[in-house]
């Protein structure tokens, strides 16, 4: 049974007197334990597809199944609950909460899952150490560089040990050594069973996965 199954998924937005199609007839499966890379030119629909997979976009048609759940039949609030239960999301623009410290940003996903406080403290401490950002834990996002914010964003996605990681240009703001470390970490997590779907323009980052999906003008070219 695939972790994710899409059947004729489509998305469009109003444009003049008609519709602008962002995704057309997307049909594909992602099995548990895969590491899939979505590639294609700017405007191809990559981030749009990732947002739908992450339950962040509810305005689409078609069928979407996640494990035993028929997502296309669920109300938005139930889709959001699935996100919190199964997923970690690395955003291209970080999406850190400006009024929370690094520590508090990392604690948020755990509080959503009702993890006991003492266990949360241990999990946050572990990820702070793993990413080498212990010294940054009391700082706010505005006090961090773009690369540091990106590291915190990746750490936040991983802190709750999600079943599925969705990553939108996860190394875009990192220098090459940091980027390679993040991709090595993703590969290690994938080897231990975490399913990963990433969007990237980097052939090097794509090489860490086991399948590449190409999008062009909203159409799936290979799956």
What's the topology here?
Blueprint: E1 4-15, E2 18-30, E3 35-39, H1 46-53, E4 61-66, E5 69-70, H2 76-86, E6 87-90, H3 102-112, H4 117-130, H5 146-158, E7 164-168, H6 176-191, E8 195-199, H7 203-206, E9 211-216, E10 219-222
Parallel strand pairs: 3-8, 3-9, 6-7, 7-8
Antiparallel strand pairs: 1-2, 1-4, 4-5, 9-10
Overview of the structural elements:
- With 223 residues, the protein is of the alpha/beta class.
- The protein has a domain at 34-57 and 86-214: P-loop containing nucleotide triphosphate hydrolases (Rossmann fold, 3-Layer(aba) Sandwich), CATH 3.40.50.300.
- 35% of the residues lie in helices and 28% in strands.
- It is built from seven helices and ten strands.
- It has a six-stranded mixed beta sheet, with helices on both faces. A four-stranded antiparallel beta sheet has the order 2-1-4-5.
- α6 (176-191) links the parallel β7 and β8 (195-199).
- α3 crosses α4 (117-130).
- The radius of gyration is 17 Å and the shape is globular.
- The model has no long low-confidence stretch (mean pLDDT 92).
């Amino acid at each position: 049974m695939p972790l994710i199954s899409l059947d004729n998924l489509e998305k469009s937005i109003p444009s003049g007197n008609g519709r602008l199609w962002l995704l057309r007839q997307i049909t594909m499966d992602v099995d548990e334990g895969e590491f899939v890379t979505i590639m294609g030119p700017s405007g191809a629909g990559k981030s749009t597809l990732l947002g739908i997979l992450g339950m962040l976009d509810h305005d689409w048609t078609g069928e979407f199944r996640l494990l035993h759940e028929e997502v296309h039949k669920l109300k938005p609030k139930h889709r959001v609950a699935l996100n919190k239960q199964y997923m970690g999301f690395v955003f291209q623009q970080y999406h850190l909460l400006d009024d929370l410290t690094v520590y508090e940003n990392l604690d948020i996903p755990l509080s959503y899952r009702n993890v006991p406080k003492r266990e949360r403290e241990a999990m946050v401490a572990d990820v702070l150490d793993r990413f080498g950002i212990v010294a940054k834990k009391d700082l706010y996002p505005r006090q961090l560089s773009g690369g540091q914010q990106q590291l915190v964003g990746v750490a936040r996605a991983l802190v709750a040990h999600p079943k599925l990681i969705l990553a939108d240009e996860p190394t875009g703001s990192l220098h090459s050594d940091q980027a390679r470390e993040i991709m090595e970490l993703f590969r290690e997590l994938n080897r231990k069973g975490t399913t990963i779907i990433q969007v990237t323009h980097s052939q090097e980052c794509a090489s860490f996965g086991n399948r590449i999906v190409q999008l062009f003008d909203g159409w799936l070219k290979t799956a």
